[in-house]
Amino acid sequence: MKKHSARVAPLSACNSPVLTLTKVEGEERPREPPGPAEAQAPAGTEAGGRTSRHRWTCSQEQLRKVFWGVAVVFCVCASWAGSTQLARLTFKTFDAPFTLTWFATNWNFLFFPLYYAGHVCKSTEKQSVKQRYRECCRFFGDNGLTLKVFFTKAAPFGVLWTLTNYLYLHAIKKINATDVSVLFCCNKAFVFLLSWIVLRDRFMGVRIVAAILAIAGIVMMTYADGFHSHSVIGIALVVGSASMSALYKVLFKLLLGSAKFGEAALFLSILGVFNIVFITCIPIILYFTRVEYWNSFDDIPWGNLCGFSILLLTFNIVLNFGIAVTYPTLMSLGIVLSVPVNAVVDHYTSQIVFNGVRVIAIIIIGLGFLLLLLPEEWDVWLIKLLTRLKVRKKEETAESSGDLGTGPQSRSRRARPSFAR
């Protein structure tokens, strides 16, 4: 039996710098949704030979992916907003953002075991854990995962992962969750700018506009609170977190390229191992220096810590492996939709003031995020759609004028008496 494998590449925008699956090779998969011009199909002809109006058609496979997309959007939105709000709640009794980051990152170790469990349940060619591990290790080169590869291709990403999450959580202590979540959406604009500069990706004017909107939104968000030091520090922390996440994604694509499902799961588990082995000393140092100190372990809200870790793990799993059942664009929508969810929660649980400047900043950043979701061929699709609509309008005009021109003549011929015998 021919073995198929899905190869994926990093995509953007998440609380953690995850490896989002976006490209599939070597297996039959439904293609991306067609452009507006491609989605129209003739619907036959009417009586009298006139062409009927076009109808939008959608295959059963596309409908299935859209259905799963709605479920994935809900999961991404709920886990993203839930983890942000739970972290804010945790800091009221446990003021230790780095310790929370370390504790939640340890759960990354579960990625590969969960992937292997899914492989055993679904795959027709089952492999042992050792065989699957060796196959996934080819992602790091012919020699597999060596000590040199670990420190050169895994450890730097572990540091970036920790910085991204720590800066994000530390920002939640300074400013409200709504501002943190909307400012982190600028991550996608930073990814585009770095990809354009470092990876020489295709230049797109609409994405430059989106990046400008993101920067303008950051400035307006700072102005919304009157440039107070507390607010400025919080905004700087979120922007730093978004920058670290963008750097993570671009460097991953530059140094490692794309990864299969199993390879991505193994890589994330390796980040968890790196965190346990090399980052554990930092929370210990912060504890004994009383930077992040608690009186006893009974004072630690273990329920909140475990709940936050589970939500963050769920968020990363869905965002990384959701490509198997739906479109990447739909998954990204879950991130921007979490902003109004956080806004509603903050409205009832905190003293946030939604003044005009803050609302405009949220709208501008959200608009920039949505513009970055446009595919590279969006302008071609738009031209085809406008052309098709123009042709359809001409056909309808010709049909209506033809009916007006032939209708009275045919009625007069039927009404004229015949004297032929």
Automatic annotation (TrEMBL):
Keyword annotations for this protein, in alphabetical order, are:
Membrane, Transmembrane, Transmembrane helix
Compositional bias annotation for Low complexity: 37-49
Domain EamA, by residue range, is 68-222
**One GO term of the biological process aspect:** thiamine transport
**Residue ranges of region Disordered?**
24-52, 394-421
Cite the SUPFAM superfamilies for this sequence: Multidrug resistance efflux transporter EmrE
> Known Pfam families for this protein?
EamA (PF00892)
Q: Where are the compositionally biased (Basic residues) regions?
A: 411-421
CC terms in the record's Gene Ontology section: membrane
Q: Where are the transmembrane segments?
A: 66-87, 99-118, 139-161, 181-199, 206-224, 230-252, 264-288, 325-345, 351-374
Protein name (record) = Solute carrier family 35, member F3
Q: What is the lineage of its organism?
A: Eukaryota, Metazoa, Chordata, Craniata, Vertebrata
Q: Which gene encodes it?
A: Slc35f3
